[in-house]
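User: I'm curious whether this sequence folds into something compact or stays loose and floppy. Could you predict its structure so I can see for myself?
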Amino acid sequence: MLLLPLLPLIGCEEEVYVYEIKAQVKLAVPEEEQVQPMCTGYATDCRLDFGEAPLAAWTERTVLVSNPVNLPLEIAEFRMSSDSDPAFAVEATPMLLEAGITKEIRVKVRPTVGETQIEGTLLLFSNATNGAVSETKCSYPDFLFRGAEEDRPVGDPTDCTIVEVKLVATGVDRGVPHMQIIPIPGTPATPEVNAVCEFGAVGVGDTSVCRVQIRNVGERVLTLDGIEMSPDNPATRPDAESDPVPVFSIGGSATADSLIIEAGAAANLVVTFAPPGLHAYEGTLRLQTNDPSYPDGAAIELRGVGHQAPVAECSIYAVNGNLEFDPEEDIEPLSDVQLTGETSYTDVQGAEVASYHWSIVSAPDGSTAVLTDPNGERPAFVFESSGREQPGLDLAGPYTVQLIVKDSFDVRSQPCFVEFEAIPQDALAIQLIWDHPTSDVDIHLLRTGDSSVYRDNGLDCYYRNCRNPGLDWGASLDIDDVNGYGPENISIDEPRLGDYVAGVNYYRATPTTGGVRETIATVRVHLYGLLSCEVEAVLEDTGAWWESVIITTEKGGVCATDDECRRGQSCVTDETALICESDIECPADYLCTEGTCAQSVCRGSRLVCQPTNRPVDPIPPTGG
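Assistant: Here's the prediction. I'll summarize afterward.
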């Protein structure tokens, strides 16, 4: 019998411990701000106490958000709980924290009630496991996306946790802003009643404006955090494919995302109303501010009615008292032009055109012309010359006048425009204006190209010798202004061959405030109704002489028939023909006789130099 030794049975069982690392979040305040730890552990029983916070002013605290473990921490959202006092706010966006990384977020409070503790709760939604399980799922943005923020994709909802931070603060009154809302036209706001913009009746297709002044009459800065229309603001679509166009819209200096109004200052808000139809419209504009009088924001009610607008009709009524006229031929500088809006009308039953509103939209540069009766049916033009009102248009050039009428419901029309041009009818017209209100500057036209004939009674046309009927060579001065601005005009109906000098003399100066005597003079030369040149110069003091323009008259133009003769042509079939008044002005073997197109529609009979042996023949060059 074999005896086997008995060996003890040895067990091989061991305890194995597996540690699973999970995402964690850690919250704290900066060391220099820490009186006591913000949380127990990483993120348990967290509390942030602001202490005393002044009313109507933001008090901010920094919170440090850290990832204490070696796994990515994904935070989907920071937000205030629904039961938090609205005075609390958080400035933070979703974030990805790699191991050991810390980022800052800003939590702030702006109390509206003094001597009372207010509370709120900051909620942090993340993939951390040291928070309470959230009843709602979280959607995380794609943190690796590198495109525009608004295009960042968001993942599907997934389980997440919540970490809560209790917030407390006590408001203290250290002076507050106080907002006044004053709409024009409309009703100012009171603590019990909203401000109202009353647009009244406005023509369909027109736009009316309500100007809202927002004043800060308090002791601290007033902050406008938000200005927006209510969601039910009426809108219209011009066509099926267009985006909605709001009936009420906002603009002005107070439209920034956040606007600060210092104590004692104001900002302006412009609200427009553009009714698309014949209806009554209402809307609401809301202002979010730090004024504790408006803890839920302030509302401005908007009211307006679309109305059928009157129609403005405007035209030229008379020129120099004549009801029959040709606007292109009969309106020139100094013409007395009268306008009319008397055919304006309205189709609204029980209404009538109640008022007229004329305005000069544009006029030649330097014009001082105004309307005699801008609220009448038939206004005319006047300008000041030598300290007296002078009827008519002062300067050559285009004019545009606007008429808007209102009916008995105060509804205004779309504008009507009268456009015309003051065209000098003489072959040569020279106009002088200047910019000094009390000085006397004179225009001179010298018959030769030599300034030595200055003030020669026969060869220099100026204020002393050239008023109606003018000089024998055709020049005449139609107006002399001795006290500021001008104009002064010299014209020649039929210029003779040769050179002319347009000169300017600074005759007299009456200094304005500060002793200023210097003036800028401007000379404009019109040839056959067209502005040919414009020059200006600085005249420093009296006695200054400026030889502004040298004008040379040479050969004329051509035409085949009377109907083709335009202003500026000599009314002959030969383009080299010379205009003349007597035989002495023609070359040898030429006589001064009527041209081929003798009775032209533009200027009447013309005399030109023609050879004695045939009716029309080219003239050899004469060097002039």
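Summary: The longest helix spans residues 327-330. Residues 298 and 535 are 59 Å apart (CA to CA).
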